[in-house]
Design goal:
10 helices; binds adenosine-5'-triphosphate; binds magnesium ion
């Protein structure tokens, strides 16, 4: 049976889709059989982010309405043999998807895969609850900023009403040059604030993605290892900003 992990946040734009997509790719690279489900039925973009938008034949509505089987709707990623994308609504954008129907689709796929990632929409309303209802674990993505942390806290509180096996935090868009001089909250401060374990720290870098989805950043290797093996090794985002060369880099970054 697959581990079904919802990637959520509360706040929009913090990196849910990026984390869900890059983590899926990283685990697929490690030989895990992965489904990445786009459960954002309003502003869906997993297909674009993973570059499979021209390879879609069926979407999740086709499965729910019986036009194809769940497995037929999966788009195998051209660069990652083990990564399969279940795309959001394309065929009938006005359709309402119930939490039960999403769960039925994912449960049907579960025996044939190791991981199912569910990319959640922003907010904590209907779309949030629909995505969470299908999951048995949650990754809450936040940035180190107060507004994102407050929304993450709200999401974590709501997640408590679901009987999830685990809830963990991924801190995204961390600026190493600020963390190095104490101008950004540290992972342990965030862990304490949210009272939830942090299992990933990802730097704010264009190269986290770089427009080339197939090249996943080393920070995702650590995150994938933590998820796979239950470790808690965090990527050192300040390494490049310590020492003489580091202070030079810090000065340059701050002028940008
Ligand atoms: N670590 C990072 N460094 C730099 N840019 C990033 C990082 N993570 C995400 N981004 C960029 O931030 C933007 C928002 O990311 P993403 O779409 O993954 O967020 P989201 O939480 O899924 O948003 P939404 O709530 O709208 O679904 C994108 O342009 C993405 O490329
Ligand atoms: Mg998104």
């Amino acid at each position: 049976m697959a581990r079904k992990i919802v990637v959520t946040s509360g706040k929009g734009g913090v990196g849910k889709t990026t984390v869900a997509a890059c983590l899926s790719a990283q685990l697929a690279k490690k030989g895990q059989r992965v489904v990445l489900c786009d459960a954002d039925f309003g502003l869906n973009n997993v297909d674009v982010v993973t570059g499979v938008e021209n390879l879609i034949t069926y979407d999740i509505v086709d499965v729910i309405e019986g036009r194809c089987r769940a497995k037929q709707a999966l788009v195998r990623h051209p660069d990652f043999y083990n990564l399969h994308i279940l795309t959001s609504i394309h065929s009938a954008p006005e359709r309402y998807i119930s939490p039960q129907s999403l769960k039925l689709v994912l449960d049907a796929l579960s025996p044939q895969f190791d991981y199912i990632f569910i990319d959640c929409p922003a907010g904590v309303d209907e779309g949030f609850h629909r995505a969470v209802a299908s999951a048995d674990e949650a990754l809450v993505v936040t940035t180190p900023h107060v507004s994102a942390l407050r929304d993450a806290d709200k999401a974590i509180t709501l997640l408590k009403s679901y009987e999830l096996n685990s809830v963990s935090v991924v801190i995204n868009k961390v600026r190493g040059e600020l963390l190095a001089v104490g101008e950004s909250l540290t992972p342990s401060e965030i862990e304490e604030l949210l009272k939830t374990p942090v299992i990933g720290v990802l730097p704010e870098e264009y190269s986290i993605f770089g427009g080339e989805f197939s090249k996943t950043h080393p920070a995702f290797k650590l995150l994938a290892g933590n998820l796979l093996l239950g470790k808690s090794k965090l990527y050192n985002v300040t390494r490049a900003y310590t020492g003489l060369l580091g202070s030079l880099r810090r000065a340059i970054k701050r002028r940008l």
